[in-house]
Design a protein that fits this description.
The protein has helices spanning 46-54, 67-74, 81-84, and strands at 6-7, 9-14, 19-24, 27-32, 35-42, 56-61, 90-92, 99-101, 106-118, 121-130, 140-144, 147-151. The chain is mostly beta strands. Strands 3-2-6-9-10-5-4 form a seven-stranded antiparallel beta sheet. The protein has a three-stranded antiparallel beta sheet with strand order 1-11-12, with no helix packed on it. The radius of gyration is 14 Å and the shape is globular. 36% of the residues are buried.
């Protein structure tokens, strides 16, 4: 599956105590009407626990110039998402209060509709409840063969 190119996103959750975030490439569109997306995260990870507890998250679709940011959000033992976006233009989504990266190519706010455990992951199906304004332009960031690449 590493040879299947995928888009790179940062998924964030505001849980009332802190901000949690992770780089996720297992993200996709499920339905256009109504707009529903899916995101898959490791079942034993803190991200799955927090998404399940809060029931909402934001997704920022990364551009090619955000490779370093993707790496920060993918690092083991990473700190609070608030610290990871320090120095990066960002705001909170109106519907989820989760962090949204202003230089992302696109952003979505999502409300979980269904949680499905599958193997070592959990897939969350979520309604798109908001489309925060972002200003990113240019090629998308993709993950292929274990590395980040610009889609031109």
């Amino acid at each position: 599956m590493a040879l299947l190119p995928t888009g790179v996103t940062v998924v964030t959750v505001a849980d009332g105590r802190d901000d949690v975030g992770a780089t996720v490439s297992a993200f996709g569109s499920v339905s256009a009407d109504p707009p529903i997306v899916s995101v898959s995260v490791h079942a034993d990870g803190y991200m799955a626990e927090v998404i399940e507890e809060v029931g909402a998250f934001a997704v920022s679709v990364l551009g090619a110039g955000q490779r370093a940011l993707a790496g920060r959000f993918a690092a083991e033992g990473r700190p609070s998402a608030r610290l990871l976006v320090s120095g990066q233009p960002h705001h909170r989504g109106e519907r989820t209060r989760a962090l949204v990266l202003e230089e992302a190519l696109a952003a979505l706010e999502c409300s979980v509709r269904l949680r499905v455990p599958v193997g070592d992951h959990v897939v969350f199906f979520a309604d798109v409840v908001g489309l925060p304004e972002v200003a990113g332009r240019g090629p998308a960031l993709a993950r292929w063969s274990g590395r980040y690449h610009a889609l031109t």
